[in-house]
Amino acid sequence: MDKEVQSTIHHLIERCKDGAKGYKTAAEDIEDKDLKDLFRKYAVQRDSMITELQDQLHKMGATDDESSSIEGTLHRAFIDIKAALTSKDRVRVLEECERGEDYAVKAYKEALDKNLPGELKPIVQQQYQDVKSAHDHIRSLRDAAKANK
């Protein structure tokens, strides 16, 4: 299996793990019921994306060995989510989620520029659409929350 493809998929898995973890944390700690439900939904979505990508790696004879990820460590894109949640500020929480999604969207755009083999490309394209739509949804919620301040 192509090393570049393998590291690209690892990178996407890392971004999805970031997202799943960030959304799980946010869902546990946020009081707004609408966001709690949404964040749970996105956490589940990311978990299934991880599984799908790991299955693809497996089919290509590779495993999801985290030590070989590009960064070696998670971006921790959602690192400030705890602080935002503590502030109980809906706008800040949504801003942190959007920032996390920016990383994911970027990772997927870069992945789609690569020469992905066979059935991997449509899977990555579909996941990119899902991530992009989550990003845009979070952004519109953030804009609405800002307008209501």
TrEMBL record:
It comes from the Bacteria. Residues 6-114 form the DUF2383 domain. This is PA2169 family four-helix-bundle protein. It comes from Pontibacter toksunensis. The lineage of its organism: Bacteria, Pseudomonadati, Bacteroidota, Cytophagia, Cytophagales.
